[in-house]
Amino acid sequence: MSDGYTLVICEKPDAARRVSDALSGGTSHADQVGGVAVFRFSRRGEEFVVCAAQGHLYGVSDPSDERAVYPVFDVEWYPSDLLDEASAIAARRISTIRTLAAGASRFVNACDFDVEGETIGYNLLKYACGGKEKDALRAKFSTLTEEDLVKAFEDLKPQHAQGLARAGRARHAIDFVWGVNLSRALSQSALGSGHRYRTVSIGRVQGPTLGFLVQREKEVREFVPVPFWKVSGTFEKEGKRFNAGYAEDRIETKESAEKIREDCLGREAVAVAVRRSSAQIGPPVPFNLGDLQKEAYRAFGYSPSRTLQIAERLYLGALVSYPRTSSQRLPPTINYGGIMRGIGKITQYAAYTEELNKAELKPVQGAKSDPAHPAIHPTGEKPKRALDVSEAAVFDLVVRRFLASFGPSARRELAEVSLEVGEHEFRLSGGRMIFPGWMKYYGKYAGYKDVELPPVSQGDRLETVGVAVEEKFGQKPSRYNQASLLEKMEKEGIGTKATRADIIATLVGRGYVSGESMEVTDLGLSVVEVVAKYAPSIIGMGLTKEIEEKLEAVETGGQGEGTLLRETVRAIADQLAELSANEESVGHGIDSALMSSVAGSFVLGKCPLCKTGDLRIVRSKATKKRFVGCSNYSSGCRASAPLPQKGTIKTTSKACEHCAWPVVYVMGGRRPWKLCVNPGCPGKNKP
Amino acid sequence: MKCHLCEREAVSGLCPYHEAAKARVQSAYPLWVRAYGRMEWNEYLDNVKRNVQTGQWAKEIAGFLKGD
Ligand SMILES: [Zn+2]
Q1: Are A561 and A115 in contact (CB under 8 A)?
Q2: What mean pLDDT value characterizes chain A?
Q3: Is A289-405 in the same CATH topology as A227-279+411-473?
Q4: Chain B nearest C-alpha distance from A590 (Å)
Q5: Separation CA A569–CA A592 (nearest Å)
Q6: Could you give the residue numbers annotated as active site of A?
């Protein structure tokens, strides 16, 4: 053995602390090197130094730094602090790792075992440790528990094919080339048509994702409902009343609906068929990241990116396993019994684990797998600190899902009765749980409700008490929410489990989609419109999906990353040329959207006088002063109000409690102040 | 030339979005007539404009066609 120590590189500082504690049995000591915390200890006579990255410390950029220049097809990896002046931390960490590498004789990459982690570790070993990316060993683990970490370090693997790191680096390079060129082409066009610089961009996966949203947005905005009628009857047997729907769900004309009522009123109903059945409902499969994100959205309303952040904190606290996984499977190697024993020490789950332990522990397994990590599961460790509300919620969800996956099927009893009234048929149905099975463990997340079973037997005669005819209208399609959009991306195979949540958040951040409702803005519509016209591959599914498939092939060694990068460059070069040739009309399209997105944000609310127009901020052509006016001015509404001429006006969507005129915030000065725009508001003279 | 109803470019009075919405409003009319037995065009436009399910562009077009 040579003189130097083993240098271990972790992905995050919390992980570095856990690795050191686990390997040293709690005897490691913290040290500062170049202002960065590192941990030192010896294990079986061998010296260890553990340090951490802080996410990506290197990023790609183009060697020329001219933002007006495109296309850019040349990329290099740079320390992040050169790309972003705010990341001085990155510079410090790189310099610390460089110092530590000089005294090391052995290197271990202990970053998270997936594409991003491999890329982070690879770049540090290559650039900061003097080309150690091929010699370093790999520690592979799925939880940060002491047991798993010790096991991983006793079984260090050589860094052989490095497909993950190659695919990760290729993904970063491709996404950079894509983003930088599109952004420059679009922003440059908008600039050309006379407005000040504003970055308009669309990433590789964002394009098709925004495309899905726009497609749905058009359906919503063009929608014209069509009327139909719903018929239901009230029937009575021995003083008890039941509601039953007409066998045909939608009646297309008012006339036929009313005829059903006339035919049935005053006639007796006969129970002609009673169908009783029972249904088995199997337990839900273990969580992969997408499933957890969708379920947390359904149960708590958390956005996918928020859920990922929470799950990551729980992972760094060694409470749950690595969350960036596609797997819906729990292999026996995770030690079912050990985890159950651990969870059993948490009071609210103790009764459940005791019950489950009575039978052989065998979870239901899902179809999706992941070569690097099992499904998300609790580690069996008890929280050592108080969890905040959202962490406690996600932790409870993960534990209960884990327990539920070991539970037996639930059984429901179902009944459906057909009632005949002359030539018409009505249906009465109900269902109730007869054996809860796994639902008991999954608790409130199971979401099944009992509907009373009608105590009606075949041949029973019931009195028809009433028949209701209800006018209905077809429902407009619903917009995607963050969870259903994530599901759509998964189904179409674009993005990765690690990036989908961020892509959705970026669409909101860039102003293409408005927050919770996921309504596409005018800017979003225009970007898709112009890009689809001149560079359809950028917004279409085909190219992005093809790249995803080839990146997977890079991971498994079936494709070279250099070839893929060259192919991508070739594919987008043609598209960029089209955009460039049509710079003027591209710019014009984006520009008018930028303008109307500004105009749109200046609508303050409904006009309280004419009730149909919008009150908005307008500027007088004569005096150049701003004031509030109604959009129905041309058809006679004279609602208007003065505004302060200084400071930014921010809309609130709130109406004044005294007069129902819109309330705004005036920003500027020391703090924003709230203002009802109505000059004659009765609330104004009150103390 | 701008669209009658929004800031977008229009070829013959309406932008492609409002043009598409117009086609939807026109093609749904016979369905409403059939559903109620009879319905005048203007009454139909009023109903479409008022209905909460109607999309924004379709509402704007219904008002426009009625001459509001
Ligand atoms: Zn228009």
Answers
A1: no
A2: 87
A3: no
A4: 10
A5: 30
A6: 322
